[in-house]
Design brief:
alpha+beta; Diaminopimelate Epimerase, Chain A, domain 1; 2 domains; 18-stranded mixed β-sheet; 6 helices; 18 strands; 21% helix; 40% strand
């Protein structure tokens, strides 16, 4: 029996934000079993946490999509921290995660309802536009950038982002980019930027709210807009709000969670 939770991350109410599955384990399951659980849960990511020895508030963390294990996931880290704060570490204000796939040490703090993740920044580099990008996204970007893992396409208006109807089959065929981020400045004064994230190569057509994407968006927009603190709105159908800050070679990403489900998995 495995304790299992689903928390909507970057959400002010249930059915908003990105639902992250969280399995709290006494010890690691075989990789094949964790992958099967992620497939059965059918969420964009399921996180698995195991407490690290006797260290207070320190856990090892892994994330699985329905297709494969992934190296970094923001919303599921926030969801895992929320579950641990609420059910396992109620007196704590800091959770430390050892992200085993990427080797990063991640820290999540809480201040009332708001939790803040401290992630390494992943600045993008300029990349050449190709016709297949415009064909797949339905609009030609004003700028294309790339990290070692992902593509980032910048557009001239948030309306383009909101109305975008991608061809996920074409995105899946892209020769580069595990995922594709699209972003623009926001015309809504409540937000600085908007974005959406597409992951069809990982069997996730659209990630409702992508926290890890902001390790790339924030360095780019912080430099362009000349401000360290940014409010980002994900324009997916579910929507979600992220409060971000560029802090040297780190990015702080803050948001709230709402508990949707608490139960047990029998395997």
């Amino acid at each position: 029996m495995i304790r299992y939770y689903v928390a909507d991350a970057f959400a002010d109410r249930v059915f908003e934000g990105n639902p992250g599955g969280v399995c709290v384990l006494d010890q690691w399951l075989p990789d094949t079993v964790m992958q099967q659980i992620a497939i059965e849960n059918n969420l964009s990511e399921t996180g698995f946490v195991v407490k690290t020895g006797d260290n207070p508030c320190r856990y090892a963390l892994r994330w699985f999509t329905p297709a494969d294990e992934i190296d970094l996931c923001g919303h599921c880290t926030l969801a895992a921290a929320y579950v641990l704060f609420r059910f396992y570490e109620p007196g704590a204000d800091t959770i430390h995660f050892d992200a085993l796939r990427c080797g990063h040490h991640l820290v999540v703090t809480r201040d009332g309802d708001l939790m803040t993740m401290d992630f390494p920044a992943v600045p993008p580099e300029p990349y050449a536009y190709a016709d297949y990008m415009g064909a797949a996204l339905g609009a030609v970007p004003s700028e294309v950038l790339r990290t070692a893992r992902d593509l980032m396409l910048v557009y001239d208006s948030d309306e383009i982002i909101r109305d975008m109807q991608p061809d996920f089959g074409l995105i899946r065929a892209f020769p580069v980019g595990l995922s594709v981020y699209v972003t623009a400045r926001s015309s809504d004064p409540r937000f600085d930027i908007v974005a959406r994230a597409f992951w069809p190569k990982m069997n996730i057509n659209e990630d409702p709210v992508c926290g890890s994407m902001h390790t790339t968006l924030v360095p780019y927009w912080s430099r362009l807009l000349g401000k360290a603190k940014l409010v980002s709105r994900e324009l997916s159908p579910r929507g979600g709000t992220l409060y971000c800050e560029q802090a040297g070679d780190r990015v702080r990403i803050s948001g709230s969670c709402r508990l949707y489900l608490s139960g047990e998995i029998f395997v």
